[in-house]
Amino acid sequence: MTKILVTNDDGVLAPGILALAQAMRVLGDVEVIAPSANQSAGGHKKTLFQDIPTSKAELADGTSALAVSGSPADCIALAALGIMEWPVRIVVSGINRGANMGQDITYSGTVTAALEAAINGVPAVAVSLGQRDADDVADYALAAQIAVSVVRRVLEKGLPPFTILNLNVPKGPVKGMRLTRQGIRIYRDELEKAGEIYRIVGPEPGGMTDEEGTDLWAVHNGYASLSPIHLDLTAHRFLADLAAWDITL
């Protein structure tokens, strides 16, 4: 059987991971490893030289899972290092409560779990639903079915090294799929202070939704967005300009 590893950043008991695990069963044998608690916006955090407790968990439908007291990237790193059978054919991360577009991908545990899989030589897809009030498995059903279509094609075609697919699905109905590039998020964070304690709060981030071809444009206009993301963060077009600075020692 095709081995599919499902993870997320909202926590092992979140409804999105249950919907995703259930949907992926049409494609293969599904195993689940996920953070024991919500790790949203944890980024690509990898725990080194510290204890990482794990425990057995069970999803609402009885699916067995491994809960990890660490980040989403920790989940995949532990799997790759032998805590579970590795390599799997594919890692699918999500379904996240809320979209992961533009600069979100640097914060997103959903996306960085997929990137950790790519680092370890396994193709991966990150899946997010642009609906932060989704709180039931049924809310994620359409996104899960769209994810099946994407993952099926990845299993057939593969992905280039160090490359993942980032899938964002708007709240339905969905008009179709668009291949996209990263757009530009606009964050409206605010700071709360209570004595010497601070908290970053604020409304839902916005973004530039009028630039056709971006993930933000697609989701804003009712399309599922599929973006290829890779781990080469080099600003290639800036290299020549930087060379002209003639920085020497």
Short summary of the structure?
The chain is α/β, with parallel strands linked by helices and about 250 residues long. The protein has 7 helices and 13 strands. Strand 6, helix 5 and strand 7 (about 165-170) form a beta-alpha-beta unit.
Features:
249 residues, alpha/beta, Stationary-phase Survival Protein Sure Homolog, Chain: A, 9-stranded mixed beta sheet, two-stranded antiparallel sheet, globular
Write the layout of secondary structure elements.
Elements: E1 3-7, H1 15-24, E2 29-35, E3 54-58, E4 64-68, H2 72-83, E5 90-97, H3 104-107, H4 109-119, E6 124-130, H5 141-157, E7 163-170, E8 177-179, E9 185-186, E10 190-194, E11 197-201, E12 206-207, H6 215-220, E13 224-230, H7 239-244
Parallel strand pairs: 1-2, 1-5, 2-4, 5-6, 6-7, 8-13
Antiparallel strand pairs: 3-4, 7-13, 9-12, 10-11
Helix pairs in contact: 1-5, 2-4
Folded structure, characterized:
With 249 residues, the chain is of the alpha/beta class. The protein has a single domain (3-182, 208-233), classed as Stationary-phase Survival Protein Sure Homolog, Chain: A (3-Layer(aba) Sandwich). Helices cover 27% and strands 28% of the residues. It is built from seven helices and 13 strands. The protein has helices at residues 15-24, 72-83, 104-107, 109-119, 141-157, 215-220, 239-244; strands at residues 3-7, 29-35, 54-58, 64-68, 90-97, 124-130, 163-170, 177-179, 185-186, 190-194, 197-201, 206-207, 224-230. Strands 3-4-2-1-5-6-7-13-8 form a nine-stranded mixed β-sheet, sandwiched between helices. Strands 9-12 form a two-stranded antiparallel sheet. It has a two-stranded antiparallel sheet with strand order 10-11. A hairpin with a 5-residue loop joins strand 3 and strand 4 (64-68). Helix 1 crosses helix 5 and helix 2 (72-83) packs parallel to helix 4. The mean pLDDT is 97.
